[in-house]
Input
Amino acid sequence: MGEGIKKYSTLSLNGVCRSGEALQNFCMQEIAKTTTPEWQKHIYQFVEEWLSPLDYIVAQTSGSTGEPKKIKLKKEHMIASAKKTIRYFNLQPDQTALLCLSANYIAGKMMIVRAFVGGFDLKLVEPGGYPLRDITTQIDFAAMVPLQVSNSIQEVEAWRTVKTVIIGGGAVSDELKSSLVDLDTGFYETYGMTETVSHVAVRKIGEDDRFKPMPNVSFDVDERNCLVIQAPDISSTPVVTNDIVDVDACGHLLLQGRYDNVINSGGVKISPEQVERKLSKCIEAFFVISSVQDDKLGEMLVLVVEEGVDLSQVKKQIKDIQSLNKYEKPKRILQVKNIPLTPTSKIMRNELRQMIARGEAK
Output
């Protein structure tokens, strides 16, 4: 075990603190039990991996833009990332952090690492849509996906016990943002990926329009206007992304969409994410902007909803939107049984296009 990892080998889980060999033995015992839920086994398996002599861990990408893949992340980079978050949010030892995300993915893994590095007590909750349902104690820091936050809006009493929440894994809709500003909890939308060892930028909901870089992180753009991330303490080389962005003079970031999601309709390049942001102000149902092949346009812009949605209502809502230009107005509305999502609730746009091509959309 490297010197840096030896320093961070003590972990408090649900109020019980264990260290080194005692922690390893506890994890082994819990993994061996047939009564231990699978989601908890994933936590204990990661803790074992963290305490192993290897200087890296294996993480899996979400698969939102392609096939999920496994990548190696250096533990020293994960420690550096954890320190950024701890410093940025002024977190203190002996505070309580909530782990309600799967330890199979980077967001869950990094909550565990932050607890190791920051000395927090980690409260374990099964990953699911309603993480605050049984919360009655003070939570100083939590990480959630937008769906978890949205589902928990009505848990007013529970939110009073939660101090700070970072939201990642997908865009936060304007509707969700507006419902959060009156709560006492501090909500922060994050930007990051597995390759950057969790988030590298944050913006406070209700205050910031742009993402601000974390400490020792800077942004640039390439010839495609896609983001290039410089963060030497968490990546030995610059991270080149497919995210189309605008970086202002202060180095703050505005996301505009993904280069590989751009739809070319009649020679006009359209960002589905930008269209979705405009439509989200009026359409209440869950929807995605996608495309179908067209002989004249090459790609035709379509709006996809799930079965059971009132199409006449959606058509009326689209008609009333003034902010769409003529190229951004969907030419058709399609329905699928389920819009495909990754385990971390990101839209699988490539899979959706394949579903449409296979005739699974009506």
